[in-house]
Design a protein that fits this description.
It is found in: Cell membrane. Belongs to the CDS family. The chain has eleven helices and two strands, in the order αααααααββαααα. It has helices spanning about 1-20, 25-45, 50-65, 70-75, 80-100, 105-130, 135-160, 175-195, 200-230, 245-250, 250-260; strands at about 165, 170-175. A two-stranded antiparallel ribbon has the order 1-2. A hairpin with a 3-residue loop joins strand 1 and strand 2 (about 170-175). Helix 2 (about 25-45) packs antiparallel against helix 3 and helix 6 (about 105-130) packs across helix 7. It is globular, with a radius of gyration of 19 Å.
């Protein structure tokens, strides 16, 4: 626990100033975190990011992450992100032939899905910060997830009896999951009171409950991945916490939904 707290303080001391400042630093941070997360995913399947498919995945990720203000770079080349992605698919499929199926169709699918999984979440990490009231909503998402995780852990430990999804994460309970949602709702009330967030209380409470639930689904998705590939943590870059995916799995689900619900 001591190691987890120390790591969280150091990581927060680096992350929070960048989030507050925004601009180019948050773009660099998003690219760095997304690249590490992709490395962690590929490693689960014993694919090296320094291999040809790993480099293709990384380049596709970087193109996918390109913020709106840098979109003219692709426009000048007369390409869209979809066209870049399709070209990447062709390169992957060509590589299956070049390796005589040592790099398989399943590996192609995993590489593409990994790129999308990581890219969507970290793209919206940047776009949330750059939007109107973006800083407020980004902190809202962070506090919502922290409250959900903490509430689920402590309430589950104190009152949890019925297992939530034992085949995926044996320690999570229904009571803990509901407790996490309740704690997230408390965060919504505090944001209505103390910030200028532009939502009605009822509307924000409904959306918060949904976001809290999907944040927990994001956590379960990563747990399912780790269980399938028989790894304990996605990485070890954050002592006591695991890897970047272990810390951002919920955000990868919550941040896109902020935009899909047209909050931003």
């Amino acid at each position: 626990m001591k190691q987890r707290i120390i790591t969280a303080i150091i990581f927060g001391a680096v992350l929070l100033p960048v989030i507050i400042y925004g601009g180019m630093p948050i773009i660099i941070l998003a690219y760095l975190l997304a690249s590490i997360a992709l490395y962690e995913l590929l490693k689960m399947r014993n694919l090296s990011i320094f291999s040809i498919p790993g480099i293709i995945s990384l380049l596709l990720l970087w193109a996918f992450l390109l913020p709106k203000e840098f979109q003219p770079i692709l426009d000048d080349l007369n390409y869209t992100k979809i066209e870049v992605a399709l070209f990447g698919v062709l390169l992957f499929l060509t590589y299956t032939v070049a390796t005589k199926n040592k790099f398989t169709f399943d590996d192609v699918a995993f590489s593409i899905m990994s790129t999308l999984y990581v890219g969507i979440g970290f793209y919206y990490f940047m776009e949330t910060r750059f939007a109107d009231q973006g800083l407020t909503y980004l902190f809202f998402a962070l506090f919502l997830i922290w409250a959900t995780d903490s509430g689920a852990y402590f309430i589950g430990k104190a009152m949890g009896k019925k297992k939530l999804w034992p085949e995926i994460s044996p320690n999570k309970t229904v009571e803990g999951s509901l407790g996490g949602v309740v704690c997230a709702l408390a965060v919504a009330v505090l944001f209505i009171i103390f910030t200028d967030i532009d939502e009605s209380l009822l509307g924000l409470l409904v959306i918060t409950a949904i976001l809290s639930a999907f944040g927990q689904i994001g956590d379960l998705v990563e747990s399912a991945l780790k269980r399938h590939y028989n790894v304990k943590d996605s990485g070890n870059i954050l002592p006591g916490h695991g890897g970047i995916l272990d810390r951002f799995d919920s955000l990868l689900f919550v941040l896109p939904l902020l935009h899909f619900f047209h909050l931003l």
